[in-house]
Amino acid sequence: AKSRDGRTYAFYTDALTRDARARIQLVANLRRALTEHEFTVHYQPIVRLEDQTIVGAEALVRWITPEGEMIGPDRFIPVAEETGLIVPLGDFVLAAACTQMARWRKAGLPCAFVAVNISAGQLSATDICAKTEAALAASGVPADSIEFEITESMLFGADSGAESKLKRITELGVRIAIDDFGTGYSSLAYLKRFPISRLKIDKSFVDDLPMSVVDGELVRAMIDMGRALHIEVLAEGVEDAGQMAFLAANGCTYGQGFFWSRPLPPERFEALFSNASQI
Ligand code: C2E
Ligand code: CA
Ligand code: CA
Ligand code: CA
């Protein structure tokens, strides 16, 4: 109900102004962070369950403020998406991941691929294909050592422009993973239209394993579907041995989660390989 009370109204607009101001401040800070190179990329291991070895990494962006505070992507990716800043930010993450991959290959680190999160706004930007080619060429890494993580909604809602871009990207050799699989749209028709390499089962299905019978059945169905379609299946958000054992016993091939490691700065990620007992 609308109040005729002047005070209530004044309070309400003050709150709006406060939110709007905070948002404008955040956008300004994000712009500054881009030009001042305050963003950095951490890497979380992706593990093959069969032998518990690290086979790849997911690149996850972090913002280190001038005050030294580390801000997680959940606090700025949505605003970056709304303002279009996701395009330069995404360019940075892709270039950083390719450069990092090139260093690891040169050092002989047995990390086969790096996965990079791609937002819808990046896919609709016209030059994503050219940028991908440029990032590959500049770093010299093979295209199949880079994986793009996209969500189901991006494929479900893909117009012909997005569809042809994704096809071109896969023709370059870049692999496509479906992120947060199972949380998006109920239609699976996109699995026929796009060459998908990997399904990443969302953490919400993994959380209550092995106790939840329903989640267990859903996860098994996703694993079986992946196997039938020759799509690799990875479980996200694995935090304990019970979840890991359920996934391994039911034929899931890859896992990612705090059970093995949190996302780490590059030098700490590298250390995981010299200290195999940590994994
Ligand atoms: P996501 O792509 O689903 O990434 C996985 C998130 O789950 C990461 O959070 C990771 O730290 C967290 N995680 C991994 N294992 C576990 C676990 O066992 N338990 C728990 N509780 N969490 C786990 P993070 O790094 O805060 O990223 C959050 C989201 O921000 C990402 O979700 C992704 O959607 C987005 N994001 C991160 N980096 C980028 C980027 O470079 N570009 C874009 N467009 N989005 C990004
Ligand atoms: Ca992801
Ligand atoms: Ca995910
Ligand atoms: Ca997510």
TrEMBL record:
It comes from the Bacteria. Residues 23-277 form the EAL domain. This is Diguanylate cyclase (GGDEF)-like protein/PAS domain S-box-containing protein. It comes from Xanthobacter flavus.
